[in-house]
Amino acid sequence: LPGAGIGAHTERCPAAWLPALQLLRRGSKAVTRHWKAMHFQRQKLLALTEYLPPRPALPPRCLPRPAPRQQQEDGYARVLRAQLEATLRASRMVAVCQYNAMADEDVATLRHFLRRHDIHVKFVLNEVARPVLAQSKLRNLLPLFVCRNILLVSPEPRAREMLRVLKGVPQVNLLGACIDDTILSRQGVENVARLPPLEVSQGQTVAALSLLPSQTCSLLQRGPAHLTALLEQHIRRLRGAGGAAEPPPGPGTGNH
Amino acid sequence: PAGPGGVAVPWAGLKKWTLPPDYSGITIPEKPKLKFMDKVPAVPKVRREPRRLRDIRGPSQVATDFTQGQYGILALGGGYLHWGHFEMIRLTIGRSIDPKSMFAVWRVPAPYKSVTRKSLGHRMGGGKGPIDRYVTAVKSGRLVVEVGGRCEFGEVRPFLDRVAQKLPFPAVAVSRESLQEMRREEEQRRLDNQNPWTFERVVTSNMLGMRKYLSPYDLRLKGRYWGKFFLKHRV
Known about the structure:
The complex is a heterodimer.
Chain A: H1 2-12, H2 40-48, H3 75-90, E1 93-99, H4 104-116, E2 120-124, H5 126-135, E3 149-154, H6 159-167, E4 172-179, E5 182-184, H7 186-194, H8 198-209, H9 211-241
Antiparallel strand pairs in A: 1-3, 1-4, 2-3, 4-5
Helix pairs in contact in A: 3-5, 6-7
Chain B: E1 71-75, E2 79-82, H1 83-96, E3 102-106, E4 113-116, E5 131-138, E6 143-149, H2 153-166, E7 171-175, H3 176-191, H4 199-204, H5 218-221, E8 225-226, E9 229-230
Antiparallel strand pairs in B: 1-6, 1-7, 2-5, 3-6, 4-5, 8-9
Helix pairs in contact in B: 1-2
Protein name (chain B): Large ribosomal subunit protein uL16m
Keywords (chain B): Mitochondrion, Ribonucleoprotein, Ribosomal protein, Transit peptide
Main location (chain B): mitochondrion
């Protein structure tokens, strides 16, 4: 019965009414292999009920970029930093050089020649070196750690040998160094290389300092020596003038 | 990072080592390769059954989630799989996986539905044709095969994509995470849709008498399915 049907349905969806006749004019079934043509009303409904994405008032590209997230602490980076700290503490000379691409055998040769003078070549990554240097006494060398670098570390300050080796390698350029707690530029390193060795300079200093004291003795002896020379001259003249004349009693050769 | 003039200056930082994936909880079953599926069931049907295309229509209620494997092929449309498809899947996957470290599992049954076909060139009439072959019905959202083992999605995806392309319905290779991501994105689209008019709302309250032009199944399908096709862009 239509009334009973409509009444039962309105309990379920009170705000709606159900169509009495479904449209089934076309021949094909509901499920077809081809794309079945939709009724225009259905097409309109699908066009109306499409998805509309949310549009914020301010587009995200106008907002400032979010701050880059802090990368997780890398254990490997920690190990490398500890190694670098130990190396810097143990060495008297640390030279920072710029490194350009070299063939492997050239790198090996350079390492060999520097090793002969007890200089170690270390390749360092800037992101590992920067925090280590910022906390150590070498923080003025921080601006040098920009491009690809190598560190030449040595427990003895061998500037001359290092410069000699590096002169033959155009791909490695010395940027700066810290020798015996003194930060030096390239010119400073060259000057240090031209210095004489420690013993020689020590001897020179001692000689320079002891120059005046060494002259004190001769200074003090100058007066009496002059007097002695004059008297000797006088004696010779007297002897030469008259052989019988007895020499006057003088103090003689007085060694005062 | 950008250098002067906006030109990108490449620089290499410390290499970030990632841990290798953990395959501790994975066991490879005894028969890692796909089982052979019969062309005809063991007890072939005597009585020819009606077409019943509703087993293609709409979303699938079975086999929508992963059970044993980590990667699989998801059907994005309805269709019938016959023995040729099964053989293609079985051989391609069998060729591509390493049975010692990977395994594959069927998520669809062997062909069970008989499909009849009349001989060519005859007029209509003369009764229903004889049984031509057996097929398996697959609805959209169902997993067809599952692959698992000590492997990554990147290793498995090439051959799963190739298999998915050859199936009679649109399909895509998925992993557990990518399926979850797909579902989450769908849900998010449904929630942040700015359109106040949705198909569901119009149909349930029969606005403007729309139900005259729609099927009663559209109450359940909500405009996302049309015949055997799954409309992915609809919310």
